[in-house]
Design brief:
alpha+beta, nine-stranded mixed sheet, three-stranded antiparallel sheet, 17 strands, 25% helix, 21% strand, globular
């Protein structure tokens, strides 16, 4: 289970030896360039500054220094010392997120992978570099260092402790059969999907009639949030005290527990989550299969442009018309160039999916799940960019001093700038959805 730890808390020395030590500049003078195994963080930082200053002097005279797999911008990301015996390791942090709010921001996935690759050496675990790890007893520190904002991971020891893990088809059909839910119906292909609000009992009666190109998928944002007793059955997605969405005005705060209940063959579209947040998906029953696409492949996915999410802040929506499970090779010939990860997700497992990853979920049998999201220090800049670039606030109105604040304070500052009509729009959207669900005939 992911447990919260202070970032500066020392980790106990593991019984196994950690892998390769910190990469050091190669040069003839070890004293001039190597970070010494000194007794304090101050000494290490002083050595780093010495390396930079000396390199600048050499470059002035047209000379160069060669590093083993090291770039100058990496030096700016070395933070926090971790010691194990006589070995010294440096933790890299997401300096690539430190772009002023007055400037457009683009996710540098290569930089994120470089941070991940370095930080994996801090832990005694055999990571899957070409797939998705399944983890238990994962510390919050390790999650943030290795996965958060970088790579998907499945957590196996969170959902089983929720009361929601005992939810069942029988319970929901009996208690809520007469209540309406928002569901997507598909006949002859995902591109012909239609969304309606109908009594849950209709889904219960006909869910076993699904076929490969004809199926139903409940995708209801408000069913759980509007029933507090159900919401209380859901525990924390990630144990920790950091979710900047809680700093949003409630009128525009994303709904945090979407009911996903699909028949066999049902699936989502191929998409990135709204606001480009870090998404979570907890399987309660059934079996999901995922295709997860690392960032930077939009040209192969035929991403639809200028679409909006219709959420309270109405940020851009990033969807692909490609059905990764029924690919039209003639219509989308470049899709075969896309690379992706595949993973099955079983009951009791929680998938954490970073910003920027296109993904599509496929229900291999009738499956009930809950999705949510969070905003923290490793993705806040990405989410703020989505909010700003759609025009919710004007970039030119952001004071330069705001970008110098701590991430949490930057989020508060941006939220305080939202115009009154944006707040009112968010409130109206929720009201309209609820009225539509309650008043739809069917």
């Amino acid at each position: 289970m992911i447990s919260a730890k202070k970032r500066n808390q020392k980790k106990p020395r593991s019984s196994g030896k950690l892998s390769t030590p910190m990469i050091r500049p190669s040069c003839k003078s070890e004293k001039a360039f190597a970070l010494q195994n000194t007794s304090s963080l101050t000494s290490n930082l002083f050595c780093c500054l010495s390396v930079l200053c000396f390199a600048v002097v050499l470059n002035v005279f047209g000379l160069s220094i060669f590093f083993n797999n090291w770039r100058w911008d990496d030096v700016l990301m070395w933070m926090n010392v971790k010691r194990t015996g006589e070995e010294t390791y440096m933790r890299m942090t997401a300096a690539y997120l430190d772009v002023p709010l007055k400037e457009p921001f683009h996710l540098d996935f290569e930089a994120a992978l470089k941070v991940r690759e370095n930080n994996m050496r801090l832990y005694n675990y055999s990571y899957n570099r070409s797939g998705v790890d399944r983890r238990k007893n994962l510390s919050l520190e390790e999650y943030r260092d290795v996965y958060d904002g970088k790579w998907p991971v499945i957590i196996q020891d969170i959902v089983p402790f929720w009361r929601a893990s005992s939810w069942s088809r029988e319970i929901f059909c009996e208690i809520y059969g007469q209540e309406r839910v928002v569901m997507k119906g598909v006949h002859d292909g995902l591109d012909k999907a239609s969304t309606v609000a109908l009594p849950l009992e209709l889904f219960c009666l006909h869910s076993n009639e699904s076929r490969r190109n004809s199926w139903t998928y409940i995708e209801d944002e408000l069913f759980i949030p509007t029933r507090p007793w159900l919401r209380k059955d859901i525990g924390p997605m990630v144990s920790g005290d950091e979710d900047f969405f809680q700093l949003f005005p409630k009128e525009v705060r994303p709904w945090d527990s979407m009911l996903l209940w699909g028949t066999r063959f049902s699936r989502s579209s191929l998409h990135i989550d709204p606001y480009n947040w870090t998404g979570t998906n907890a399987v309660i029953s059934g079996l999901k299969h995922w295709k997860l696409f690392p960032p930077g492949q939009d040209q192969f996915l035929n991403v639809l442009s200028n679409r909006k999410s219709e959420f309270p802040l109405n940020c851009y929506k990033y969807n692909s018309p490609v059905d990764a499970y029924e690919v039209d090779d003639q219509g989308f010939p470049d899709f075969k160039k896309a690379r992706y990860l595949e993973i099955d997700q079983y009951p009791g497992e929680l998938l954490l999916l970073p910003s920027g990853w296109f993904h599509q979920a496929y229900n291999m049998e009738e499956t009930m799940a809950i999705s949510s999201q969070f905003m923290n220090i490793n993705n806040y800049r990405i989410i703020l960019e989505e909010i700003i670039k759609i025009g919710n606030i004007q970039r030119s109105d952001i004071a330069p001093e705001v970008s110098k604040l701590a991430p949490e304070e930057q989020v508060k500052a941006v939220m305080s700038m939202l115009p009154k009509h944006i707040i009112e729009r968010g409130q109206q959207i929720t009201k309209d959805i609820l009225e539509q669900v309650l008043n739809t005939d069917g």
